[in-house]
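ok so i was messing around last nite and threw this chain in just to see what happens. nothing serious, just curious
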Amino acid sequence: MVSKRIQAMPFSSIRKLTPFANEAKKNGKTVYHLNIGAPDVKTPKTFFQAIKDVDVEVLSYAPSQGIPELLEENAKYFQKIGLDFKPEDLVITNGGSEALLFSLLVTTDVGDEVLTCEPFYTNYKTYFHEAGLKVTTFPTDVKEGFALPVREVIEKAISEKTKVLLISNPGNPTGAVYSKEEIRLLGDIAKDHDLYILADEVYREFIYDGKEFTSFAALEDVKDRLIVLDSISKRFSACGARVGCTATKNKDLQQALVKLATGRLAAPTLEQVGATALYQLPDDYFDEVREEYTLRRNCIEEELGKIPGVVTSHSTGAFYIIADLPVEDSEDFARFMLTDFDHKGETVMMAPAAGFYQHTERGKSQVRLAYVLEREKIKRACELIGMGLEKYKEKK
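result:
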């Protein structure tokens, strides 16, 4: 019998239906994956070339905090975007996931509570369980573009056990980008209730419609309670490298993060070498990538808008959109698409959105879709969703 901790831990909604997708492929179907934020934009060749150029006889452990070259380049990146982080403020981690786990471990004790918005990134739940934490949430609504509610609604979710405010901006799974005023509001709430802020900002380059990104690190009066979580996964389409980082000006938190880093020895050496090269790319690298994602966003919103009964918010960041479908149970529909439906041998995999909610009934009819495919594939996937909904209603 496995531990009670693991028994209580839910499967990730992003990969929950993978066995059904694998079976569909085994049966000869083509599956369009809109379930996971794995970009198909090519990883810059500079990453691979930097690794190829490594000439060592022994591949040793990297320093626990990270190789000096990457710490330096990562700090330069932050400073270039107006955030005052120096190499000594950073810890290189095994992806953004380890950055989150480390940050939770240094700011909370078992039984404490984490406050976040709902819906939130489903895999956060894994780390809440690992750290022995409870989650409390305040609601945001698809019909309001997942904007933050008023202060009173947010504060209602805070208790004596709440120690941390965790926010993804731009938002995963919502695609929402919080305004300067919304970030200021959250900063004030964190100060007034003596909460740490964990700012998941891994999608900061992916913002559309001329919107501006405001980092929590731009608020001078919260720097003593802030840890920024970062990663190269989405920024440089290098998910498999598993290189992230924490950034904090709080010396006690930084020392604690380094202590955790020494316990797991090191992040991978070669991937850190490759990441160092990525941070040396010219600034205009993101212009073309951002333009492509804007076109994909426009495409998926237009195509979903053609399907009767589907309601979406306007995604202004990251590369996700929540779609409220005319079904009672989106997980049942998503499974149906993989097991009982195809058109010309093609179907779609989606992420049921209930798993992105603490109160799962609120997302029961929703799915999260990642617009990470070429536009023609996005069009076809949306066409298949529309056809699938028609067949699903006939079945019911």
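not much to say yet. The chain has two domains: 4-42+285-395, 45-278.
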